[in-house]
Design goal:
Blueprint: H1 2-30, E1 35-36, E2 38-42, H2 57-66, E3 71-73, E4 79-81, E5 84-89, E6 95-100, H3 114-124, H4 143-148, E7 158-162, E8 165-169, H5 191-196, E9 214-220, E10 224-229, E11 244-248, H6 260-266, E12 272-276, E13 288-302, H7 312-317, E14 334-335, H8 358-369, E15 382-385, H9 391-405, E16 412-414, H10 416-425, E17 430-436, H11 442-446, H12 463-473, H13 478-495, E18 498-511, E19 514-515, E20 518-520, E21 523-525, E22 530-532
Length: 533
Amino acid sequence: MNKTRGKINLIQKITVCCLVMFMLTMCSACGKEKLETINVDITENIKNLDPQFATSDMEQNVIINIYEGLMRYSYDGEVVLGVADECILSDDKTEYTFKIRDNAKWNNGDDLTSYDFLFTFKRLFAKEHKSPYVNNLLSIKNAQEVLDGTLPFEEIGVLCPDKKTFVVKINEPKDDFLEVFAQSYTFPCNEKFFKDTYGKYGVEKEYILSNGALNLSKWNNDSILSLTRNKYYYDENNDNKSDVNIYINRKAKKEKTSNNMINLMLENKTDILTVSEKDREYVPTDLYTLNKISNKTWYIGLNAKSRYFENNDLAKAFAFDNNNYGEYNEKLYEKTKSILPPSVLDGYNSINYITPTYEELISAYRQGISNFEENTLTNIKFYYDKECEFSSVLKEYAKQKNQMFGTLISPKALETEEYNKILSTGDFDIILFSLSAKSSEPLSFFKQFVTGDVNNICGISNSEYDELIKTADSINTQKERYEQLSKAEKILLDTYNIQPIFNTSEYFTVSNSIKNFGHIGNIYFFRDAVKTQ
């Protein structure tokens, strides 16, 4: 009898304990909101996720979230410590000593070391294949000499005293130098892993070794990239943040508007989406926040490496008349005479682009064409993306030049993929193209026209311009820096290879259900982002 009662008491105690545990679990769950995956929709394919060489905005958006540098951007846009947990600046402000976190690891569990950053710099300055970003690092001691080939890489101002210490020496104090280490091109690269990819680094999922808060767990370039939380990331709260899906050309179920991306938003399938000026009226502002970025300028570009327009007289003759645009949608496009988009002026007084007089244009054409056997220009390769909505302006431009010079130029619309290929190969004489700002600093925009820069679409090469930009980059005082930039801008305008015509604004929507999401322009930071139901 007593034994039976004892068994019953034991069962009762176990039952009570189970109930208590269940209630505690339920209470804990009640206080914690369920995490949802953040959905981003884009229309362009992502082809390269090599931090030292990838250039498109969407490639940067993936890279900056799956990798992390010595420094990083917080979600409110501040530059803060990244995989370095300490940065010591010398008394003369020319030497930075980074101490790498003991628990900083690659996403395969291997330790991250200072040698991974040293190898990054070797790749940036590699003689056989220099990075398009290398011009941003010329304030480092001996960097210019290494780039020119007059000194070996071993003489550059980067050192590894031990596996957790990385030292960078610069020529002169520079207030914003730390920001360099939050940029993708200075992100770490593991030498052994890189060499084992045999030239395929960054082009497929299995050829990527990263160290950021998120991993690239899926990459199907026709449909989706999935970013999931990295279990080896040093932040112990990393698991309590949202994963991200980036969809490529995902189709909406219903065609409520002519824009498929807008239809996805109206179906509540997407959280982050780029929206044009004409489509922003569709955005349900009770569910999404609209972010405006006046960061893009459109240009008529004359290829400085083409047979005709390496001649400055002919480039001048083909200057765009910014007093005669023809027809265009004034709600979407704003006339401009400035090389810089509004978002990067930051107190800088840009020089206006002014079309030469009719007499000057005729004189320049006669002088230029005299260097050729033919009497007029023929077979000019003049291209634009068929998605461009002001093709009538380009046709008016061609019509004016044909009437003035007896030429037979005609702009040709290309499918986006073919257009992008033309941009990358430089196989054009005249092209419509745009540049977007990556920051609010004018210097960062002008760097895109330095000889050899990846964004120097028109192949401009001017040593005096390059030297002025280099000098401006080493000056801390804004007034003196802007004086150098003004001289450089005058040189750039006088080439006539870059002719600004319009400014446009972009918007991107962010679902109000997402917290701690950050961005600079249209570069997104998901490290701390949380989406709840």
